[in-house]
Design a protein that fits this description.
The chain is 76% helix and 0% strand. With 496 residues, it is mainly α.
Length: 496
Amino acid sequence: MNLPVILDITLGLIFCYLILSLMASEIQELITTILQWRAQHLKKSIEVLIAGSVDESTPESQSARELANSLYEHPLLRDLNQGAKGSIEKGFRKISGGIANLIRTLSPKKENIFGDKKSGPSYIPPDVFARTLIDQLKIKELAQMISYARVERFKQQNLLQQIVGIYQDSELADENKAPIQKEFVKLGENFDEILADFKAQRTTLDGTIDRMAIKINTFIKNCQLTLPANDSSLETFYSRLAVFHQDNFNESERKALLGSLKPSLNEVVQIITKNPEVFAEFEKIFQDKNSPTYQSIVQLIDSLPVSLKQSLSELANRAKTGTLNIEEDLRNLQNQVETWFDHSMTRASGVYKRNAKGVAILIGLVVAIVANADTIHIVNSLSKNSVLRAAISQNAQQLVSNNPASDLSSVRALNNQVRKALDDVPLPLGWGAENVKEQAERNWQIPYLRQILGWLVSGIAISMGSSFWFDLLSKVVNVRNAGKGNYPTKDDNPST
C-alpha cells in the first residue's frame, strides 16, 4: 500500500468523522439549549464562589443560593436574560421549558436552580456582577448612613452644644437673650434641613459642611443686626463665635473634619463582618430597632456566608488607596470584585469544558452506534474500494476549497454542504443490509467484539468535534495535493 492510498484512506476516515461530529455537535447544542446547561452551570458557579464550597448540603451553600437568587433579581442581571420575542421563538421556549421541567421533576433534586424564574443568563460580564454584588450588599447605603450619623453627632456636640456653651459663658443681658435664642432656634432648623438634604443624597458631604459654615455666619450676622451695638458682653459673644467658626471651618480643620466624617471602605466592610466596635456605632444610628431599614440590613448581614464576608474583607484591604476617599475605594473594590469573579469563572469554564467533553463522548458513542459507524469496517472498506476513495477525495477537496479554515464561521453552512456531498458518496455507514452483511463477514471469532471496538473508536473520535476534524481534513487535503507532483509514475526513471 503506497503513500497516496494511505492518504486517501486517511482522508476518507476523517471525512466520515467530520460528518458524524457535525451531527453530534448539533445534538449536543440542542440538549444544551433545552436543558440550559450553560446558564445552570454559571448559576452554580456563582453559588460556589459565594459559599466558598461545592457541598450543597451546608447552611453556607443554602445562604449562597438565596443571595445568588437575589442577585439574579437585580435589574442589571435581570436585563441580561433576554426572553423570546417572536411567536415561533416563544413556542420553542415553551416546549424547551416543558421538557426541562419534566426532566427536573424526574430528577432527585426537583428544586429549580433559578428560583422563581424559568431561565437565567448564560454569560455575565465581570463589571455587571461586581456592580450588582456591591449594590446588593448595600455598601454605598451603609457608608451614607455612617456619614449621616457622624454629621448628626458633629452638629449636636461640636456645633450646637458649643454655641450654647459660648452663650452661657458670655454673661449676656436678659434683654439680649431672647433674640439670640430665637436666632439659635432658626439655626437648629436650618441644620435639620441641611441634614435632611444630605440624608436624601440631594447634597454631598462637602456641600453639607459648607452649608453649615454659612448658616453659622448667618446666625452671627443676624444677631449683630438684631441686637444693639457697643455692648461689651455682646462683643465678647461675637468674638468667641468668630473664633469658634474659624476653629471648626478653616481650611486645615475642614479637611480633617471631612476625613473624620467619611467612613473608610474597611469600616463599612467591618459592619458587614460585624466588627463589635464599628457595628456598635452603626446600631446607634437606629433608635428604633424595629424600623424596616435596620431590619433589612441586619437580616442581609446575618444571611451572608462567612466565606463571602472573609473574601469581601480581603478584597477591601486590596482596594485601599490611603486617601480617605471612599468613592475611589469603591471603584477599586469593584475592580477587585471583577478580577475575583473573572478568575473564578475561568476555573468554572474549565470544569464546564470537562463536563461537556464527557457528554460529548457519550453522544459520540450513541451517534456511532445509531449510525453504525465502525471505524475498523470503514478502514477496510476504504482500503479495498478505490472508487469510494476517489469519490470521497473529490468531495473533500471541494468542501475544503469552499470553506477555508480561516473562514469557517458557520457550522450549519458546512453541514448543508456535507449533506449535498453525501448524495454522491456511498459511505460505509448505517444499518443497511449490504453494510451489515459486510461487517458480519469480517467479524472476529467473538461475536460483535470487532464491531464494539469500532464503535468505541468512532465515538471517541466524534467527540473531538467538527472543528478539529475539518482543520485536520484541510491539512490532509493540502498534503495530498502538494505531493501529487512528486509521486513517481511508470514513465519516470528513478535512476536518472
